[in-house]
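agent> Task received from the user: take the single chain below, predict its 3D structure, and emit structure tokens. No templates, no multimer pairing.
agent> Plan: (1) validate residues, (2) run structure prediction, (3) serialize to tokens, (4) report one or two observations.
agent> Step 1 OK, no nonstandard residues flagged.
tool_call: predict_structure(input=
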Amino acid sequence: MFGLLRSSTWTRGVKGSLSAFRRRCASHSRSSEEFIRRFIGENTEVVGEQSLTPELRLRLFTPSCRFWTERPELWPFEDPYWAIYWPGGQALSRFLLDHPAVCRGQTVLDLGSGCGASAIAAILCGAAHVVANDIDPVAAVATNMNSVLNGLQPPVCLTHNIIGSPPATFDLILLGDMFYDESLATSLHSWLNRCIETHGTKVLIGDPGRAQFEEHAIRRLLRPLAQFELPDSVREENYGLSCSGVWSYTPEL
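)
tool_result: status=success, residues=253
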């Protein structure tokens, strides 16, 4: 499955013909939360130990899950980025758990929240209010399930694209692995600037040093806060990337 996510055939498969799977699922509404919860439960495993945050339990894809190797055209939803605990998100969540004062009593937005790990970490650290935003509604269901796994009330989950909307009123914005596309990175850069200028928002970014991140103009405005060595299994799943870091976005530099 992880290999399929990185392959162009995955995108073509998902956006191509899904007729075989849809016929089998005709009696269900794939948009219903009950169906999505059941599907996630049947096609993920609860893991945690092989990450930077072994104290968190998350439902993710593993090599023993059906869709790790299944044909991509059988997948019924959008690309399942929520089913992988990406290295930038791991570093960001680890940093929060190691420094709970960063978000204690704060209003926090986890932007591009995926599996919800950073939002969960913020809740565990005592954030006053947490919002998880991901444009994939399946990610919202996964975040709810993962929150319950960790004995927490789920955060507020929003599934509309808030990038480019009026500046969000949050004390802290978290972004893990969001700088994977140049045009998205540029949109983020502009929107984050407006949030900072309007509300004095603090911004933390987690990324393993992908080229799109390192080469973007925003990179020179980041202050390094922490660097973590990735577990062997995470390195193998991410083209051998060995470390992941956390930066504070300080546009006044």
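agent> Step 4: summary for the user.
The first strand starts at residue 45 and ends at 47.
agent> Done.
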